[in-house]
Amino acid sequence: MAKEGNVLLGILAIILGILVLIFPLFSVFTVSILAGLSILFLGIWLLIQSFAVWEGNKGVSIAYLILGILGVIVGIGLFGNIMAFSFLVSFWLYLAGFFLIFSAIMSLFAKEGTAGKGSGIVGVILGILYIVLAAYAWNPYYLAILIAVWLIVDGIALFFINPSEIVKMEN
């Protein structure tokens, strides 16, 4: 059984999931603001870093400068822009899905035994699932539903899973 702190986190995740279901567009708008702000702050930090390392390494400084400018532009573009946020989420889900399928197919050919083939098949199925989810993530309403379902499932899982036990099993 989960620890008391995990149960509280689970309850919080379920409540947030229900709130996202009740207010889907407001929730996606809020997440787009938070994502935009965080990328904007990251861009500003990278700009500051570009000037801080100028004396030591000009190449790194220029890389920081370019990434900082891109971060500021993307952060401003995402700030409160529901469609831009939905596009980016959908794009990353498509990209992850194609990478999963590609690596799973490679795994099917490279690995031997039942476990290797099984992991390849699971990878293909997950990749297809990511691509299907990406098709729905274009619509901000469906994106909110996907986020809400994830929060609720994760909240329920926190009732039964103790993350410290998972770490012990891996070691």
From TrEMBL:
Segments traversing the membrane: 7-27, 33-54, 61-85, 91-109, 121-138, 144-161
Entry keyword set: Membrane, Transmembrane, Transmembrane helix
A Pfam family that the UniProt record links to this protein: DUF308
InterPro entries registered for this protein in UniProt: Acid_resist_chaperone_HdeD, DUF308_memb
Coiled-coil regions listed in the entry: none
Cellular component GO terms held in the UniProt record: plasma membrane
Protein's UniProt name: DUF308 domain-containing protein
